[in-house]
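Justification of resources, computational component.

The compute hours requested in this renewal are based largely on the per-chain cost of generating structure records like the one below. Each record pairs the submitted sequence with a full structure-token output. That output is archived, and it is also reused by downstream analysis tasks.
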Amino acid sequence: MKKTLLIALSLFHLAVYGQDSAGVKKDSVPATPWALYHAIEARLDTVLDDDQSARRKLDEFSKQHNTRRSDSLWKVIRKKDDANLAKVKDILDKYGWLGIDEIGEKANLALFLVIQHADSLTQVTYLPMMRLAVKDGKAKAEHLALLEDRVLTNQGKPQIYGSQVRTNRAGKNEFFPIGDEGNVNKRRAAVGLEPLEEYARNFGIDYHLPK
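The structure output for this chain reads:
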């Protein structure tokens, strides 16, 4: 009986505080998927706060037409983006695109936004992973639509959903070219996005669907 108990305790110790083949202790690694996801969620929640805090200030400066402070803030944003991207890539490369049921809605949103704000090569690299995540129910179709449009406009191609906006020479906002524009609202509805006329108001654009 004592021998059996000793074996059971040894197996439990190995499972929770085991060593890898090189003899390195793993007691710093969460012992269950739930604990692992909880740790990732906490990390990504911080990433999202970092991503959005400076951008909210940027919106305020833009409304005030404070170019000097906007330019200075962009430097801060780029540094934060680089640091956040390193964290998100590490998570995606190790665990794939984790869903809301695994890490929560806020952390799941952080995965998308950090990739959306990344360089064009990174966006293209992780686009297939996000497409698969949408099929598996681990990412939102409306978020994927924004990334698809971002990649296309960066490549100088017409966007699909009309999500990407630029400033023209007159200093006014306008949409990047939209392919098959007459049917854009059908595509937007299919992924859960509001009609383009409503979306346009967020940018001060008086948009009318072409007839």
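The radius of gyration is 22 Å. The chain is about 65% helix and 5% strand.
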